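ok posting inputs for the histidyl-adenosine monophosphate job
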Amino acid sequence: MSGSPPTTPARRSGGAAASSGGGASYRTPIGTHDLAPPESGRWVALLGAFIGAAERAGFGYLQTPIFEDIDVFARIGEGTDVVGKEMYEFADRSDRRLALRPEGTASVCRAFAQHRPTTPWKVWYQGPFFRYEAPQAGRYRQFHQIGAETLGTDDADADAEIIALAAGFFDAIGLQRVPLLINSMGDGDTRAAYADALSAYLRQHADDIDPQDCDKIDRHPLRVLDSKRRATAVVAADAPRITDFLSGESGAHFERVREGLTALGIDYEVEPKLVRGLDYYTRTTFEFRAASLDAAQDTICGGGRYNGLVEALGGPPTPGIGFALGIERLLLACDAEGVFDVPAQRAEVWVIDTAGGAEARDLTHQLRSIGVRADRAFDDRSIRAQMRAADRSGAEIALIVGTDEIDAGTVTVRPLRRSDGGSVDVPQQTVPRSELLGTLRALFDTLNAPAPASGDSSNPA
Ligand code: HAM
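and the output
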């Protein structure tokens, strides 16, 4: 199954309601997807892995609304595609101008300005974000990010720490082909001086630049560097480099970030054209790009410093650094590398009740309350149908209760497979109710033990 759009019926969705027979049937809007089991189990596991890494590094969870006053997002840059072309804007019933969040950093800075927490404020977040883009693999209108931000320090070691958090996470989920590119945008003055030099250079080469990029030369020269269009990319390759415009202070900051990455064993490449698509960046910028994905959508994680953003949102001058990674794209990269598969979601024990279902109801409840993953079939199905369901569930043990067992106060315990999925050669036994838990514990130990060398440990799943 592909990493992001789940292969549920929703995958065939096209957007508008389609009429069928007597009533209308509705589909997910274009560029959005349902997330259903078993694929959703992968998202839960992914979040779990990130939470572990973030908490070990001292980041707490922050949740902000998915819509905000539209002006919160204006600071991302009026000239950026994200704000200028892709934002979902609306007026509520009281005519407040709001927008669905296109990214998380502006909201985090708004929250900081509003609550004024003690610094450094280290937070992580996750959830849906919205951009009106042309949907394609790895690009959606509702997509999901995990992000982390450190506010209140300009220490270059915080930059190295946040990059290490992302790198360590990719490592933990087994992703390997995700090179890190870094750059420095310098301070406010650097950016302005560089923009002047860049637009002068681009004007000189305007005839060679793709016509669709020409209108950006004067208004947003840095955006020209982002262009994936071939002719533009050729001109951009020889453009002045922002790293040549860094002040002594910004240069030293960048040097310290690089030193930190080297000390932490994180490989990187300096890419002076890495200016990112959002206007708030100062000093460090970085991206992890998946070598396994198509170049148009290969950035799985982007981030950088934004030392002026909190102040622009009405807070005190507060430096900040962070990143966001796109979950869908990350999972596409996992698929391409064949890592971080959908985890098996199976029961450990399946209760088969041929005497009306009350025993299954009570036993599953009892087992769950002591931490066993237990399940059952409903609707008083035949024993054959219940056995088939037990088998499909992947459970290691079936508990069978019929009228004979009820009369005798016993349960039949039937081993189905080893914990690793291998076949098992342990006979079923009928035990008194009072001995059930002890029997289950001993049986789990047997089924969990390493497979005998000659045994069959093949995984039928
Ligand atoms: P961004 O580069 O706009 O940065 O987005 C971060 C990541 O979100 C991208 O690298 C990509 O993986 C994913 N993404 C973005 N748009 C889409 C889309 N339409 N469909 C699927 N995935 C998408 C930010 O959002 C900044 N807030 C990052 C940051 C945090 N900078 C500092 N702190």
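notes: The longest helix spans residues 39-56. Residues 227 and 233 are 6 Å apart (CA to CA).
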